[in-house]
Amino acid sequence: MPSLGLAVTFDDEQLFWFDAPMSRWQPRLPDFPAWPEATEPPSELVHDTTLCQDVLQFLTAYTSKYMPMAEAKGIPVANVFLKHPLELGRPNTLVCMVGNIFPPAVTIGWQRDGVPVTAGVTDTTYTPVEDLGFVRFSYLEVTPRAGDVYSCIVTRERDNTSVLTYWVPQNPVPSDVLATALCGAAMALGILLALLGLALLVERSAWGRS
Most buried among 22, 82, 166, 187, using CB within 10 Å? Predict the structure, then answer.
């Protein structure tokens, strides 16, 4: 049966989701601010969510009896990336963004070097997107070190099939090397602009004498 979901988003980023059984808004992450009660009391949505559930049940029963069809199943697509620029040995957060989810029934797990990791994991709820699918995020607190191999495992609950996406910390450019490269590029750009200005002055002078 289809799932009921209601979310508040900004620029396609989920901020809050509505917990229908508890009749309250929940922030996507625990450190997000609470829902401002004066804006829209959750009690105003209870009638709408009940009506929506009733309509879903009726349509599901009707289509299952009179219009049987194969259930649509999206193959999840996972992308893993760091929340902040990579610095080996410094705390960071790995983000596993899972898209193309339908129906919204997947579990997300993490492994480091093939060993399951549960500490420091935060999962979000499902966020509906324009293509009638869902997106879900999972966050893992990490301290990247050379040689680490992290994997995000997305498992569809209905058929227990999994999709794995790996992330390996690449050697970052040392800060002193990066600063030297930027300084050299700035100097080269300055010299190029100075030569261009000199060429324009010479050309203008020659044009005036002619």
Answer: 82
